Amino acid sequence: MEPIQYIGEHLLPGQLGQFALFAGFTGSLLAAFAWFMAVQRRERPEAATWNKIGQWSFGIHSVGILSVIGVIFYLMINKYYEYQYVQAHVSDDLPMKYIFSAFWEGQEGSFLLWMFWHIVLGLILVFRPGRFTAPVMSMLSLVQVFIGSMILGVYIGLGDDPFKLGSNPLLLLRDTVQAPIFSNANYVSLLQGTGLNPLLQNYWMTIHPPTLFLGFASTTLPFCFAAAGLWLKDYQGWVKAVLPWALFSGAILGLGILMGGAWAYEALTFGGYWAWDPVENMSLVPWLILVAGVHANLIAKNTRHGIRSTYVYYALTFVMILYSTFLTRSGVLGDTSVHAFTEMGLETQLLAFIVAFAAIAAIQLGLHYARIPVPEKEEATGSREFWMFIGTLILLFSGLIITGSTSLPVYNKIRQFFDPAYLGSVITDPIPHYNKYQIWIAVFISMFSGTAQFLRYREPNWAKHAGGFWKHSGISLAVALLLTLLASSWIKGYSWQYSVLMFAGLFTVASNLDYLVFFLRGNLKKAGSVVSHVGFGLMIVGILASGLNQRIISTNPFMMDGLIEGAEEDSARRNLLLFKGVPMKVKDYTITFVRDSIDNLTRTYEVNYKRHDDSGAVVEEFNLSPNILYNKDFSAIAAYNPATKRYLDKDIFTHIPALPKVEQDINYRREREDSLNYRPVALMPDLPTVFVDTVKLDDADTFLTRTYTLELQDVTRKPLHEDYSPQAGDLAIGATLAVRRSDDDSTYIVNPVVVLRGDFIYAYPHQINELNAKIRIPESIFESYFVQEENLNFENYTLKPGQEIAVEGFRLRLDGFQRDPVHPAYTPEDGDIAVGAKLYVQSATGDNTTLEPVFFIRGNRPFNIKDEWTTKGLSVRFASLDPQTESMQLMVARMPEAGRELSVELATNSLRSDYIVLEAKEFPGINYFWAGSLMMMIGLGLSMTDRMRQK
Amino acid sequence: MKKIYIIAVLMIVASIVILTSAADDMSTYATFADADNSGQKVKIAGQLSKDKEMVYDPQVDPNYFSFYMKDTEGVERKVVLLGSKPQDFELSEQLVLTGKAGGDEFIATEMLMKCPSKYKDEEVYIREEK
Fold this sequence. Notes:
The complex is a heterodimer.
Chain A: H1 11-40, H2 47-77, H3 84-89, H4 99-103, H5 107-127, H6 133-149, E1 154-156, E2 163-165, H7 173-176, H8 203-231, H9 237-266, H10 278-303, H11 307-330, H12 347-368, H13 384-406, H14 408-418, E3 425-427, H15 430-451, H16 462-490, H17 496-518, H18 528-548, E4 551-552, H19 567-572, E5 576-579, E6 584-586, E7 589-599, E8 602-612, E9 618-624, E10 627-630, E11 637-641, E12 643-646, E13 650-658, H20 661-664, H21 666-675, E14 678-683, E15 689-696, E16 703-716, E17 731-741, E18 747-750, E19 753-757, E20 760-764, E21 766-768, E22 773-776, H22 780-790, E23 795-799, E24 804-807, E25 810-819, E26 833-842, E27 848-851, E28 854-858, E29 861-865, E30 867-869, E31 874-882, E32 887-894, E33 902-907, E34 915-924, H23 926-950
Antiparallel strand pairs in A: 1-2, 4-34, 5-34, 6-7, 7-8, 8-9, 8-10, 10-11, 12-13, 13-34, 14-33, 15-16, 16-17, 17-18, 17-19, 19-20, 21-22, 22-33, 23-32, 24-25, 25-26, 26-27, 26-28, 28-29, 30-31, 31-32
Helix pairs in contact in A: 1-2, 1-6, 2-5, 5-6, 5-8, 6-8, 8-9, 8-11, 9-10, 9-23, 10-11, 10-13, 11-12, 13-15, 15-17, 15-18, 16-17, 17-18, 18-23
Chain B: H1 2-22, E1 26-28, H2 32-38, E2 42-48, E3 55-56, E4 65-71, E5 76-81, E6 94-102, E7 105-114
């Protein structure tokens, strides 16, 4: 078969991208090798040449990878759907501001983002060369080789099943999927993009991944420096050089993790900031070990103790980053995580990545272990390094426990490999499982980070220092105890374990503030550690407050009948049904669903909250507006977005977990509408009409009869309906009806409308939600109406202003003329001469109204527009005007009784659609968590700038 | 470093204790039969029975969603989730429930869904004819 000549493909950018990709990959290989040689031959003159080659190769690598990124953006911006990656992540309706999010939504894009940050960090090192540049860059380039291989997409080996190295983001769609569409030469014009998952269409997706990946990338450097130090046999020099990088990494990685938590809390509906999800855990573990490394690093720098530990911590941090990458990207987490990627066939490569660097780290340490200097004297028990080092061990311990529990799916996979019958185990309740152990770790860390501040490095004279130590520790303990007592009146539901943790957290805060005042004398430049540790203490307070006192507001008091006993099931019942405009009292709030409005695909619900005190008086009132996002064709809801009311001491979080099905899916709504059983009811004005409805009951052959009483109050040509916006030329009829049902006390006033616009008829039925009933005016109204209209017999009368006549029992009086008349059926044009007549009309029964028929001359031709008193069937026309006598020709007609009948249709099985399901939660003290955790990162940043200044 | 070693040994002991005690927190994915027998809170993995009815009527109870699921042994049972019907529920294939047996039903307090098609669609989207 002859290959098809495809039309409309843009192959050139893809080919350029492929070239750049291979150039970039080769560049990283070459750079790794050249700098390797530069280190190995560092004593010889050719080292300078190798260095040059290294720089140039890294330059090629950088240009190559940046070009690949540029090409992908170009393809995405131009929406070239013939490329698989573009088709999978972009769509026509994707706003430009989400193009970055779309780029790193996929695995390939996020690998590129990771490489991008390595390039940025690498270039900083290359342009500020130092003693460790060559070995660090050699290692960094090797890391780039491994990541680059993930996006190469080349096949290695022969035969039917060659090994696929990486997944290439520049492949054409027709090379990745088989579909009949590709037999069409012009398939490109038929393609449509899948687009970005609507859940990811928010600003968090724009800022969280780049921050997190900068955090990931920055952990590479401490490891590279550690390895470089050993490689150059400069066992102490690296300890100082690495510190600012490690502090930077700690701050950024921490910030990235926090943003993830903030996203989960604010934009997604997980209802919390941390859920011990495997993906969350595996970004936390490297951070914990990195922080352990920073502390070991400080010990090593000040005392020369713990150089090996620092090395191990930094190496382990990087290996853990790789392990985390493996877990989230290999698909091994399967059904235990909500946000892991799906499988892509990169498992082997990811595994090789981990093994390679774990091996490099281990071999390096093995080779140099004995030569790394260790002071002869053991750390004194009263020294700062001793307790700090124990602190690092506890952090490591924490990380390893979390890793152990999180790796359960990996363990299952391995066992299943040897024993396929093995079922695999899971953690039944992850949150209590993790909390149980981490509580004690947090207690230890808090206590140590408080007391260690009062200790000195290499304690020279403990006997002299001890007094001060005990004094300050004592003061801090006393302050913490006092604060714990105060807090216990605020936070309820303590167990003794939580009290201990609260005490420990407050102790950290108190002791570090003490240290700031009495030891640092308020010198904020040196206060990085104080800021971080106080932050840690506050974070613990926040976790306890928001975790323990989290309160579900939206528990329906009437729904507590409960399926089974037990508090747990009750707490699971957290949704409340709210009808529009009907206030619902729950606990200390009254919640009302006020209104909803739709703008494009976003539908916003306004919910009113009134908080009252014990006596019932309203203390506070506010509105929250959670919203939902429909998909393109309104056939489903793509995202439910919560809304939060923020206070200094708490947050009130609210979101909509469910809506009536007719509001979720427009197709279902149409289906429902079509299935409605409308039955006609003929109504005469002002004469109540009875309609009997029989409902078959589900369980037996019994029927329920309900009687509806309908009364036609008014018929108008100028109807009002919430969904109807009048346009010029519309012919509209609206009725006002009073409806009652036998089993309901209320009278409902309804206003159905029907509109003839051009050739189309639009019906605007009126839904009575309380009665599950719907009323509409049938289309046939126009037909019967026009027939009646044509058969009307008008009679002529001449009238002067003030003159009164009697016609068919009505009394008509001309009150005057009106220039520029307003009439729904009259649209003024330039050159019109138009006059309206003001007619006062009174019926035999004494009712009265004012009619205003219009007469106008357009292009020398006379026209008139009638006006009518619909319920009485009286029509009037303004036939002509005699300017000399100031008299008008009036035509009057009365519709026979039968013609005044209005037929409406009533359906009694329409679904109620005016409600929402709402979940509302109160998170007290959540701001302590945010402020505290942010302070930790700020403290790391402060320390970093301080260390950089010392250089 | 001697004291440090002692502490390290203590930590290793502690971690062994923790890991053994943690075994209580773990369970294999149970079946409906296991849930009946134990009466305890269990985790059950299974397939959603898409042909059976799913009931969620917020007007009756916004915290009651019922559907049918087949566990790993192929036993099908009615499940009641004490919450709202999650988004895209019909698309999910694999479900993991946390809850207890309650008579003929399984009362779930938590549910994880796995929708393989959600993030990666192999289907080629075709523009609609205009």
